Structure formats: C-alpha cells, structure tokens
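Could you help me review a protein record that somebody else here produced? What it holds is a sequence and that sequence's fold in token form. I have pasted the whole thing underneath without changing anything:
=====
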Amino acid sequence: MKPEQDINNLRHSAAHLLAHAVSELYPDTKLTIGPSTPEGFFYDFLPTTNFKEQDLPAIAERMQEIAERKLPLTHEQVPKAHARELYKDNPFKLELIDQIEGDTVGIARQGEFHDLCRGGHVEHTGLLKNFKLLNVSGSYWRGNRDGQPLQRISGTAFFTPKELRMYEKRRQEALKYDHRKLGKEQDLFSFHEEGPGFPFFHPRGKIVYDQLVGYLQSLLRAADYQEIATPMMLSDELWKRSGHYDHYRDNMYFSEIDDRSFAIKPMNCPGAILVYKERPRSYRELPLKLAEFGLAHRYELSGVLHGLFRARAFTIDDGHVFCTPDQLEEQIKQMVAITYTVLKKFGFEDITVGISTKPEDAMGDDALWDKATDALKHGLESAGVSFEIYEGEGAFYGPKIEFRIKDSMGREWQCGTIQVDFFQPQNFDLTYVTPEGTRARPVMVHRAIYGSIERFMAILLEHYKGRLPFFIAPVQIKILTITDEQKPYAQELLATFKERGYRVAMDESSDPISGKIKAAQLQQVPWMLVLGAKELENKTITLRHRDGKQEFGLTLDDLLKKAEIAQK
C-alpha cells in the first residue's frame, strides 16, 4: 500500500487527466475544480450540454489515450497577471486566482493542457492507467446552492490493476448489498418525492431504530446521563451566538414566525446549553451529563443525497457533558470506553482512532485549541488507546476524537466523535459555583457514538448484508407450521416468547412449508421454528437458522436459553 500522500497525488493527477480529456472532447466546457477524495476524485464542469452516464465510456477512452502519451506532469508558480490571461474566459478560475494569497499561483501542465493547481502529482500520465469513472451528478460552484449549477464527474484511481480490480469487486458487492435496496426488500424505510432526502421509517424499520436507541439509552443511564429533549426550531439569534449561523447557514432551514427569524436546528448543542443555563449550577452537580436523541435537519444538495448515509433529516445520539477542567480527562476516558463497548457490540473490531485538529475557519485562539487538543490526547493515552493526528479536520469550535470502523467489505466509516469545547461556555457565559463560592467556567464536551441513528443503521445493514443480528432484528422469531394441526401448539409458543419480550410472529398463510421458509429467509428472520407432526407429538421444536442450518429436537427451555444468550 502506498503512503496516503502518494495515493492523493495519484488521484489528484487523475482529476487533471479527466479535465484534460473533457477539454479535448468538449472544448467549450468550462473547468472549475477537481480534488482527490478519500474514495477517488471528482471534477466539476460547466458544459454547454449536460453530460449523461452514457458519455462516460468515451471520456474514459480519451483519458486512456492521454495516459498512453506518457506526458510529463509539471508544476510552476506564475504571476497572477499571467494566470488571469490564461483564464480570461473562465470566471471560475478568475475567482479562484483572486482569492489565492500572494502574487503568484500554481499552474500544472501536461502536454497542451494546463490547470490552476497547488501541486502534488505523479511524474507522467502513463502512471494513471488504473482508473474508473463512476458517475455523473449535480453540484454547485463552491458548494453554494445559490451559486452556478455544475456537473460533477466522479471516479477513482489506483496504482495497480489488482488494486482497481479489488475495488471494483468490493463496489459490486456494495451495490448488491446497498442499504437502500435492502431497506426496500425488508420493508424498513422509504424515500418519497414529497420529501426528498427525508426518510420514512416503516413499522419494521422503526423497530430497528428503537432497538439502537434503547440499547444506547441503557448504557447511558448506567453512566449517569440524564436524557433531555429540546425544540426543533429556535431563534436564529441563538445560532448566531453559537457560531453555527456563520458556518452552517447555507445548510440550514429558516422560517419567519411573528416577525422573527427562526432556524430548524442542524444540531443539538445550543439546546443543551440553554438547559444548563436555566438555573445557577454548583460544582456538586458536575459533571452534568445530558443525553439527547435529537432530530436535526441540514440542507444537502440533491446530487449528494444517498439514502440513510446522506439525508436531510437525521437523529444525532448526542451527549453534552459539562465538567470542571480537572474532570475532563476522566470524562473523555469514560466516553472512549462506552464508544468501544457500543461498536464491539455491533461486531466492529477493527477500530481506528484519530484526533482532528484546528481547521482554518476555527473560532478562538491557539492557546485554547492547544489546551483542548492536549486534553483529548491525555484522555486517549490514559485509556490505553493509540491514535493518529488528522491535521486541520476539527470542528470550528474545537478539536475532536474520531472513531473509524471497518466493515465486512473492507470499507472505513467515521462514526463516533468526542469534541472538547472551551468556546461555547465563553459564548454563552456558562458558569458554576466553586467550593470557595466563586464562579468558574465549565468545559463542554460533545459526544456522539452512532453519529446518527439513520447512518449507523445503513452501515449495519450493509455490514451484515441485510442479516441483522438477533438482538436488533425487527422480527427475531417466525413460527412455521407444516399443517393446521400444529397451530394450537404454535400459538402456545407464540404466547410464551411474546411474554418474554421477544419479537415473534407466526406465518398464518396456507403456503407449503418450503414457501413459508423462503418468505422468512427473504425477510432475514434469524430464527424459524418449524413445527410438524413429530414436533407436536414430542413437544419439541426444530430450529432453522436463516443460513439453512437446522437444530432438531429442541425443547422450549432449550430455545429460551439460546434466545437469552442471542439477545445479549
């Protein structure tokens, strides 16, 4: 595996290769920007006629032709006046040139093609043969929905044909087990044009949702969290004070009520702050741990919506802990422990931890950022957790710990976060009374483990390929009778399992047993209890697992013991 910087250079160079091919095939197309991404690369264009998916093979073929030319990739700094002359007909590039500091800008060249660029490339185009164009989607200039609509062509690239083949295999597998496809097949959730980007949970999906919430609630109660609920809409003055307005307003929804402007919350922290401020707080109350499963709304471009992975409404499993500086390290240590407990419960053993540091648009001075970052480092070190540093990737109000999990298909997902925040307590003048009777400033820690319930559910569906574990499956047990003669016995079992709190159902159809088994397997029911004449006579049960494995001659007590273990 090549170092991360090398793969970024390769993919950034592939974005230039894409732009080069498009400029040869469609010379009137305006070029904008084309960065590398964790999955590959993209380039945003303003074409005279919109691209279609069927245009991608021709573009890919021209990219291969350019790659075969083995054109050297060079990079130089040129005066801004020269760059403006090069791009006098491209308003996008001219805007970028004006915003770059200094008197010069970078220009990358390969043959007759050139592009505005900071640098970081491979030596020549012959190293760019292992790529694949993935799709065409909509975008906006600089991500601003009020800006110029553009078209984005996305792709990926690797150093070797083998790496590309492995990626394509994983991608095909991912498409096969796409959570949107599984959600439809298993009747879990849906999306509708009447609410684009807003998920509709069906009864079966709501059960899974509630199991995720309920499990985490039990852990948080044991850790002395108190659950709150805050309004979905709050005055935009609150969001301006918190800093979210300046950083998120392009992704927020607003409404006018009684001549006042309100915003639908994109996150939950300001609401938790108002709960803290409701009355004076004493050091005896700290750490004050507030949990909220809060529904948030964020405007996302239609081109980036992706089922439950990228929705416009989602529930954040937020925790906001207000503590003294002396309590901070222990609180971080406890949050790390809970996060590992949850992730391992759902079968994620390959967990990478990193600390994201101060971004360019951060609020506050360096001293507080250093203090917050050191607190996260010490918390992880005291928990015995090794970590990486992700420079410049923190939230605007504080650094954060990120937990990244690897799924069964080898894909990495960023889920849980722990963020130390010294700035919101200052913004909102939060205090507590010390043992000496003076007032001091608490530290605020933001914590999420799932990240969002919806996204974590999507990850689980794809990780388990639709076969959700027994403890969160919407229907855990399906009772199947071979003939009507076994139905009274089936009803007895149904009542017993229901009394014990299991999610159990009985197939009342007149289908043959093979049809009943097939229907239960399609619904990915973990356990099928098959009852025939022999089982009725001996008061036993045949347990059929969804993978086809069977266990014969089990008693009810046997099954109850197995179910108790599977539920844990």
User: Anything to note?
Assistant: The longest helix spans residues 4-25. The CA atoms of residues 138 and 151 lie 5 Å apart.
